[in-house]
Design brief:
single chain; 162 residues; mainly alpha
Amino acid sequence: MEIPFFNSEMKTLRKDDKKLTEELLATENEYEKVYKVAEDWLRHIYMTCKRQFVLWRYGHIKEMLKECIDFLEHPEQYGNAPIPKYVKDASEAPFEYIDIEQLKTKEEIEADIQRKKERKEKLDQKIRRLKLLGKSYEDSKQYNPYRRYGVLRSIIKEIIRN
C-alpha cells in the first residue's frame, strides 16, 4: 500500500519542482534583462566614482541614480550599454539547475525545491529593491546635500553589495 502512495507523492513533488523551475526561470529572465544590467551598471559607475575627488562625487552619484531610475522605467530606450568584464565577474555565479528526472529520492527533490525557493526569494528581493530605487531617491531630497550624499551612497551600496 505504501509504494503507490509514495509514487504519487513523488509525482506531486516533481510536478511542484517543475512548476517552481518555470517560475524561477521567468524571474531570472526578467532579472537578467533589466535589473541585473542596472545593478552591474550601478556597481561599475560607483566603483569609478570612488576614485574622484569627494566634492565631485555627490553630483555624479545623483546623476547616476537619476539615469538608473530612467533606465529601469524605460529599458527599451537604452541599447546594450557596455559593462566591463570585471564588473560582470563581480556578480554572483550563475544558478545551476539539476535535471528533475535525475533526482531519485523524496529528500533530493525537497532539497532541490528548497534551493529554488531560496533563489527565487533572493531574486525577488533584488528586483523589489531596484523597483523602490525611485522612491528612495525622492525621499533623499528632504536632506541637505551633505547628509543626502551619505543617504544616496547607502542606497547604492545596499543594491550593489546584496
